[in-house]
Amino acid sequence: MRTAFYVSDGTALTAEAFGHALLSMFPVEFQHTTLPFIDSEAKADKVCRQINQAFEKDGEPPLIFHTFVNETLKQKVVNCGGISYDFLDQFVGSVAQQIGVQAEPKTHRTHGVHKNYNFRVDAINYALDNDDGKKLNQLDQADIILVGVSRTGKTPTSLYLALQYGIKAANYPITDDDDFEHLDLPKELKLQRHKLFGLTLDPQRLHEIRSQRRQGSQYASMQQCQFELREVEKLYRKEAVPFINSTHFSVEEIAAKILAKTNLQRRRY
Amino acid sequence: MRTAFYVSDGTALTAEAFGHALLSMFPVEFQHTTLPFIDSEAKADKVCRQINQAFEKDGEPPLIFHTFVNETLKQKVVNCGGISYDFLDQFVGSVAQQIGVQAEPKTHRTHGVHKNYNFRVDAINYALDNDDGKKLNQLDQADIILVGVSRTGKTPTSLYLALQYGIKAANYPITDDDDFEHLDLPKELKLQRHKLFGLTLDPQRLHEIRSQRRQGSQYASMQQCQFELREVEKLYRKEAVPFINSTHFSVEEIAAKILAKTNLQRRRY
User: Is A240 touching B (CB cutoff 8 A)?
Assistant: First the structure.
């Protein structure tokens, strides 16, 4: 298997995003190796040795996706013997010409601590404090309130919205303590109806997920999953709560779909 | 202010990563607009209208970073009148030639639900269950155990490691209930000493963070922060616990540094 290296004098997150997106277009598996914080000549020399070892082992030159700010270190890595892809270099001249401003590369500009950083930490704390219906007296501070039956992805989505975008997401479970035959929202949620967003799943998928937790239980049974999902979707429609079926979506996709369907303002780009 | 658009028939996360990294090299502010899931001609037409409105408003053509799988939709957006940057297109031919395989673009390959997806959800649940020293009987399942005094970033880092990499991170607070004069680790942590990783901060920063929570308290006082940090760093050294000072780092940078300093295996790329 051929090796792909992601190398940078910063976190290498941008090199990874770039390389992964590019390689994911090919029906081929790669061995991935990320080498962040390569910020000295000694470290760059060590990278060279790793690249050469992979070359020998694979019998093919590794692909190297890199985003260096330091030009000397970049040249060292470029000259190591792999196939080098530098997407910043490829586009920076064109952007400079277009906007009429010269580039001033600095490390930590992309993934460093910016003026919006505290928003994210506040949003994470908010998501934790308001996970799983723990509190109903802070919902006025929420940017969005995710609702859904147990195990439909509310918690990971809330945390992702907080970490990635600085959005304060509370979540509230429609649980099996509720009377599903006469399902209604608590009055605290009705007061914030404009912030509600529902998650749902295909019954088969919910059955699988719940079975991992409580194999053979009534809670995990196909019949119970079908029943709860049917009733909760009826509730969403009755209360005009927008919702998505997240069966085939990752947390990134769910979050992006929520942003696309609402007017939520990101606190971070 | 000039507008930058991030447009895709998928989540647009890749277009954002690419565009943000590129624009962050310039000392210029942009108005950012992300338009994900542009998967029909009607939606592409609406994108065109938005691009043209921004052009009129700004008096300058917007920059458009896009990653389309659908060629027809891509052409529509490219011909809208902005300045178009397509980094996949720029590199895909070179990679295809290098590896001798043709590209087969599909949506949802980069940010979809992959075989490693359940690892991430399991890791998030683990991080929540084992946050803040809640449980000491599941530490054998941890990939890493973050330790530190209150408010040094253990929880956001644990959640980020889980969401981003599928790594199971527990965290344990060295709290003001502990006897800081005779600081020691509980025996459950000593048994897992090889998994411990410490976080620390500059006293001034910790003082600021704690003051936001409990203004004027003993807990937030500069003296207390200095004392706790000095003692906990002494403990790290005594117990040979690797640690980093995260004062100037974002959660992405802290996580990348931890991965670089340990042999933690990511469960996701």
Answer: no
Q: Coil, strand or helix: which one is B72? A: helix
Alpha-carbon distance of B83 to B64, in angstroms, equals: 6
Q: Degrees (nearest 5) of the Cα angle A128, A207, A132? A: 15
Under DSSP, is residue B24 helix (H, G, I), strand (E, B) or coil?
coil
Domains and CATH numbers, chain A: 3-99 (3.40.50), 117-261 (3.40.50)
Nearest to B154 by CA among B260, B215, B232, B227: B232
- Adjacency order of strands within the sheet including B83-85: B31-35, B3-8, B63-67, B83-85
Chain A residue nearest residue B114, CA to CA: A250
Instruction: Convert the pLDDT of each residue in A49-80 to its tens digit.
Output: 999 999 999 999 999 999 998 999 999 999 99
Q: What is the pLDDT of residues A137-187, one digit of tens each?
A: 999 999 999 999 999 999 999 999 999 999 999 999 998 666 677 788 889
- Predicted-complex ipTM score: 0.84
Q: Which alpha helices (H) appear in chain B, and where do they start and end?
A: 13-23, 41-58, 71-78, 87-99, 117-129, 154-165, 187-190, 203-213, 222-238, 251-261
Beta strands at A144-149 and A63-67: parallel, antiparallel or unpaired: unpaired
CA distance A247 to A229: 12
Pairs of residues, one from chain A and one from chain B, whose beta carbons lie less than 8 Å apart = 204
Quick one: CA dihedral A26, A27, A30, A32, positive or negative?
positive
Is residue B240 left, alpha or beta, with left meaning phi > 0 and alpha meaning psi from -120 to 50? left
Give me the residue from B22, B110, B112 closest to A21, CB to CB. B110
Q: What is the pLDDT of residues B166-204, one digit of tens each?
A: 999 999 999 866 667 778 888 999 999 999 999 999 999
